[in-house]
Amino acid sequence: FFFTFFLLLSIFIYNINHHKSKMVKSAVLGYPRIGVGRATKKAIESYWAGNSTAEELESVAKAVRKERWESIKNAGVDFIPSGEFTLYDHLLDHSYNFGVIPQRYVEQKLSGLDTYFAMGRGKQDRAKGIDVVASEMGKFFDSNYHIVKVDHSPDTEFKLLNNQWLNEYKEAKALGIETRPVLFGPITYLSLVRKARDAPADFEPIQLLDKLIPVYKEVLASLKEAGAEYVQLDEPILSLDKAESFGAEFKKVYEALAPVAPKITITSAYGRVGKSIDYLKELPIHALHLDLDREPKQLDSVLEAIKDTKIDIELGLISGRNIWKNDLNASKALAQKAIDVLGADRVVVSTSSSLLHTPISIKVEKKLTEQQLSWLSFAEEKCEEVAALAHALNGQETALFEQNTKDIAARREFERTSDSAVRDRVAGITEEMLSRKAPFPERRAAQKKHLNLPKFPTTTIGSFPQTKEIRQARAKFGKGELTAEQYEKAMEAEIQHAVDFQEKTGLDLFVHGEPERNDMVQYFGEQLTGFIFTQLGWVQSYGSRYVRPPIVVSDVSRPAPMTVRWSAYAQSLTKKPMKGMLTGPVTILNWSFPRADVSKEVQSKQLALALRDEVVDLANAGIKAIQVDEPAIREGLPLRKSDWDSYLKWAVDSFRLSTSGVENDIQVHSHFCYSDFGDIFPSIQALDADVISIEASKADLKLLDVFKSYGYSNEIGPGVYDIHSPRVPSEQEIKDRIAAMAKVLPADLMVVNPDCGLKTRGWKETEESLTNLVAAARWAREQY
Ligand code: GLN
Ligand code: ZN
Prior knowledge:
A hairpin with a 2-residue loop joins strand 17 (539-542) and strand 18. The chain is 44% helix and 13% strand. The protein starts with a helix and ends with a helix. It has an eight-stranded parallel beta sheet with strand order 1-14-13-12-11-10-8-2. Strands 15-20-21-22-23-24 form a six-stranded parallel beta sheet. The protein has a two-stranded antiparallel ribbon with strand order 3-4. By secondary structure, the chain is of the alpha/beta class. The structure holds glutamine and zinc ion (ZN).
């Protein structure tokens, strides 16, 4: 008996070990921070408002961390991330933890937590004499997530102030959960932080590498000491061209870290590693992660490069960027390729990036149909997919995998049968449809007659204050407490107020004020076919700010006019010309979750055709000027320069397609919330808008030199004051601004407007500011 028992036992143990070493494992790179029921967001905002203590906030944070770990673990994922949870932003966490706290925050003598938040969002408390501005914010690669870029200068020192990674590793371990701690790799950290304004011209933060390495060693050694076997170092900078020249830096860093660290996996989310593979394959690391959602083609060459090294591969197959159910059979086939070359024990399947760009779970969505839900996969479901994929590769196809096969087939069928009329229309787009009937000078003459605007015409960017009353009316309408008719009356009253206000203030080109819009993208999505909306699909934008992007699920068309009714009503109230107001195709697409089955180009053109019809209908309704906002055209720029041209071509074509259906006398406007066009200036010019308005009040006027040097010849309204603060600019300030601008730009091309829409402002400051703006424009008419 004993003999048989030991024999069986040893076979059993052998099998376990054997299997363990020959199995594909699964990983998740990061998870949403918001917490179920928006717990984190609510706790942070309550703390900011002074309604709860730091301890209360920490206890919520701790519960959310537990909930996240358990959710990933219960899904069956092997490598569970820790240390990437944050109360504001994880790049800011690194700076703070490394003791990089610029003097202006130190001087406020705040608690650690308040110093941290002040670095993220500034702090003003006049009574206590506290007044400090936030660090700069920047977009995180091509996502809509924003990082906080703390100032670094040559004398920046790094000192481990708070070992968040060790703390959270231990916190999870105490819950019985083994995790893989996550940090930004040192090269990405230094590439993303900000160079202090007063730092010498030849300084770049990357020069601080030697000073930074010891802190990383300290953190990584502490993790190893605490028992961590693996660590994830995020180096998304690898998705950029510039990383290709960072070979020496990578070598230096990873040769220094590897001996003291747990086994290192370098991740490369957001794009392809490109030529950087030439040095990556030489590094003393355990594994390299690839983004195969965005860049599946890179797999073959990377496998070839690493097959004779000791480096394992982590396949980022489950998208961290979209909300679509993964095609697990397709992912399985790709992963099998890697297994064939490297063997199962050198392969991990993973998410393409952190899941922070996705909502938590589809399970809470009550308004979507079964069919719609069967297409989608949010963070929780993505964790299950990663695990199911690993299981399938290890020879056990789970029920989830089978269901996935069915759902994907059904989705493909739906895609094939959605709107063929729309697709035919896209296929039928001609060159002529992309151009206005005459060149700008001719159009301009026609528009002068049609609009009859003075020199230095004054206008605004579209929205007027979205007051509490407006939001309440919308909420009541949503709950059925107001009838459609009552709601429309309320909006008409707002429009009447906006028109009266502009009349009284003496503006020249009016707007209706956009009271009826909940959001500049959602408003259009709700009226177009092809979009669906979640109830709780919140995605982090920055800090405690979350957005709920609409989802494009099928071909897009416009069943009926969307804005004509409101613009026509507004025009009926005044003899002054009313500007129609639309969101452009590229911006609608960029601020939504796009489809994955057709290209962005096709989706953008479908949107452009819908908007083209709207533009024509507005013109037919007597609207003489139409603005098509494209603030997202620049942020949609691909990360690699070699991909720019094809993007810019369809982005520009889409704008032109949407605006070229009208006669020469219709003045087409566009608006951009930024002005650092730099490299893409020719594309801005190629939009051929009759008038563009840009953010310019905060920027150095040198930016306008770009317009001059390119010989920009259409009309332009560089914003004369900043709308992001309640501060009222004086008449003299605006005059000075106009005078400075008139030194660079031809006076007869200038339009006078604020930087952006006024929806976040109050009426009082809006009234005062615009009164001063009109006075300054009148002065300019005399001067030039
Ligand atoms: N027309 C929009 C508004 O005024 C433009 C918003 C934007 O540029 N982000 O609100
Ligand atoms: Zn703007």
